[in-house]
Amino acid sequence: MFRRFEMGEINWKDKCWVTVIYLIRKDGRVLLHWNKNMDTWIPIGGHIDFGETPEEAIKREVAEETGIDFDFFPETEILGNSRIVKPFKIQMDAVPHHNLHMTFVFVGKCKPHDNRETTDENEKLKWFSEKEIRDMKDEMLISVWDASLKAINLVKNNL
């Protein structure tokens, strides 16, 4: 029988529930931000707040950090009473001094936007081309490098 879990039962003490998104512009560039704590480029995202779905959390994070409007890729589907959200992947990362991150990873297609250069926390934002990402393999987390390239190609091949 189906049992409804309370958030406290799901969010175990040694796990953090996180969501990130690889935002892709029409020209095929991916948006990353410089994380001063990790000293590297990472996608926009953050922790899922109590009561939020991963989809709601990433919409909030993108709005807060960048103000950019986007559509999920692939798009969310409605089938009867079901909402079908298709994350790009679910990733688990051991983050030093910060527990295990259970990360819902999304891809989004950007709508026209301003060219903001910093996040709400004054961290640098940069739009990277596929070539720039390829050239930075040794300068960023391999998971970010790989997902950036895959997200660029996923959107580019489905336009």
Question: Outline of this structure?
Answer:
The protein has one domain (12-156): Alpha-Beta Complex (Nucleoside Triphosphate Pyrophosphohydrolase).
Can you describe what's shown?
It is a single chain. The chain is an alpha+beta fold and 159 residues long. It has a single domain (12-156), classed as Alpha-Beta Complex (Nucleoside Triphosphate Pyrophosphohydrolase), CATH 3.90.79.10. 23% of the residues lie in helices and 34% in strands. It is built from 4 helices and 10 strands; from the N terminus they run αββββαββββββαα. The chain has helices at 7-10, 54-65, 130-135, 142-156, and strands spanning 15-24, 30-35, 40-42, 44-47, 70-73, 77-79, 82-84, 89-94, 100-110, 125-128. The strands form 2 sheets. Strands 1, 2, 3, 4, 5, 8, 9 and 10 form an 8-stranded mixed sheet that branches. The longest helix has 15 residues, at 142-156. The radius of gyration is 16 Å and the shape is globular. The model has no long low-confidence stretch (mean pLDDT 87).
What is the topological layout?
Layout: H1 7-10, E1 15-24, E2 30-35, E3 40-42, E4 44-47, H2 54-65, E5 70-73, E6 77-79, E7 82-84, E8 89-94, E9 100-110, E10 125-128, H3 130-135, H4 142-156
Parallel strand pairs: 1-9
Antiparallel strand pairs: 1-2, 1-4, 2-3, 2-10, 5-9, 6-7, 8-9
